Amino acid sequence: MTEAKEAILLVGGKGTRLRPLTVHTPKPMVPAAGVPFLTHQLARARAAGVEHIVLATSYLAEVFEPYFGDGSSLGLHIEYVTEQEPLGTGGAIRNVAPKLSSGPDEPVLIFNGDILTGLDIRALVTSHTVSGADVSLHLTRVEDPRAFGLVPTDATGRVTAFLEKPQTPEEIVTDQINAGAYIFRRSVIDTIPSGRPVSVERETFPGLLASGAHLQGMVDSTYWLDLGTPGAFVRGSADLVLGRAPSPAVPGRCGDRLVLPTASVAPDAKLTGGTVVGAGAVIGAGARIEGSTILENAIVEPNAVITDSLVGAGARIGGRTVLAGAVIGDGAQVGADNELRDGIRIWCGATLPAGSVRFSSDQ
Questions:
Q1: Which helix H or strand E contains 109, and what residues bound it?
Q2: Catalytic residue check, 5
Q3: Whole-angstrom distance, CA of residue 58 vs CA of residue 244
Q4: CB atoms within 10 A of CB 272
Q5: pLDDT at position 148, please?
Q6: Is-contact 43 57, C-beta < 8 A?
Q7: What does the pLDDT average to over 259-274?
Q8: Helices assigned H by DSSP within 217-304
Q9: Are 275 and 238 in contact (CB under 8 A)?
Q10: pLDDT-based confidence at 362, cuts 50/70/90?
Q11: Residue 238 vs residues 151, 188, 202, 274: alpha-carbon distances, Å
């Protein structure tokens, strides 16, 4: 069998690094390429044969079900389990286990709600089945692995260790990292302690390895991006529009731009680099927008120049204002002739008068 019929999707994080995008919206529901990011993950799981998905929610949990309902519009059966207290990745997996119907030896797909990936899910399931593993992990290679957990494997792909965020050159024994998607043998999930916080990366996996369990790694070096920062989120959305990151859920053809119905774009405005213009947004004459996300009902006034930035829902960007690597919160008002660069974030509802800012920030 090369399909996992059930999946757990971990969507409980607060998205702290993504604020102000996540002040009103949980991270997986922030729009990427015109739809909530979570839609892309659900659609890819469905395309790989998954039929039943349990969402492990916590922060702003009430937002998910009204949008996705029972999942039937995506061809899925979706259920929701909300943590009252944050339980960590392992605790969240164990907490939703009662919703699963798979037999003890059947594969269950588990993935994080903030990873954009081209992973071949069926290939991961096949690798898991053929190797007879208890847990299989998607691994990817990165140039600088210091911010990640390293997962060295032997010649057969069997995991030999878990090394959390190495700092010295001696500790960097591999460029393979845990990419945040797993196949668990159903019975293994029940061995995770219940009712308390558990980190799957720091406790569950090392504990399984120490007990002699078979953990298998599959290196898949297709597209992979952790959407934990605003810059990464904007890039991920653009890559979905450009077709660099595959998703059956992009609402339109891949290309340089994605303009949603009811948006209004001036004929001479230039949209490039995978730019998304949300429903009801207005782009003024002469505006130039590259690799950016303009969320619903935002207004970009004439001759503004926006690069690699995100403009929140209902925000307004004044004429001739320059944004580069900026994040503008929902409903913020940025007056004309401002220049905001280098990771600067403007909070939801904030107001910047015309010509008031000509600085950059590395925050």
A1: strand 107-112
A2: no
A3: 31
A4: 16
A5: 80
A6: no
A7: 96
A8: 230-242
A9: yes
A10: very low
A11: 29, 38, 33, 4
What residues form DSSP beta bridges with 80?
Answer: 55
CB < 8 Å & 24+ apart, contacts of 354-361: 354/318
Helix axes 230-242, 37-47, angle to 10 degrees: 50
Determine how β-strand 176-185 pairs with β-strand 107-112: antiparallel
CB 328 within 8 A of CB 306: no
Residue pair 248/47 in contact (Cβ under 8 Å)? The answer is yes
Q: Which residue has the higher pLDDT, 26 or 123?
A: 123
> Could you tell me which residues are beta bridge partners of residue 138?
218
Looking up tokens 């969402």 gives 55
CA distance linking residue 28 with residue 149, whole number of Å: 22
The pLDDT score that the predictor gives to residue 363 is 41
Q: C-alpha distances in angstroms, 86 versus 99, 103, 149, 198, 325?
A: 18, 27, 21, 10, 32
Cα–Cα dist 277/358, whole Å:
26
pLDDT at site 290 = 98
Q: Is the pLDDT higher at 202 or at 361?
A: 202
Distance from C-alpha of 165 to C-alpha of 154, rounded to nearest angstrom: 20
Place of tokens 């405005």: 269
Closest CA to 306 of 240, 314, 316, 296: 316
The amino acid at 260: L
For residue 225, give both structure tokens: 């991006």
**Which residue in 5, 14, 99, 165 is the catalytic one?**
165
Q: Would you say the pTM of this structure is higher than 0.85?
A: yes
Q: Which residue carries 């299989």 as its tokens?
A: 136
Instruction: Give the per-residue pLDDT at 201.
Output: 87
Helix, strand or coil for residue 138? strand
Q: Which residue has tokens 């810059």?
A: 231
Question: For residues 100 and 54, is the Cβ–Cβ distance under 8 A?
Answer: yes
Helix (H) or strand (E) holding 306: strand 305-307
Neighbours of 92 (CB within 10 A): 26
Instruction: Please tell me the distance from the alpha carbon of residue 352 to that of residue 170, in angstroms, as a whole number.
Output: 48
| Nearest partner of 219 among 170, 173, 181, judged by Cα | 181
Instruction: Check residue 61 and give its pLDDT.
Output: 76
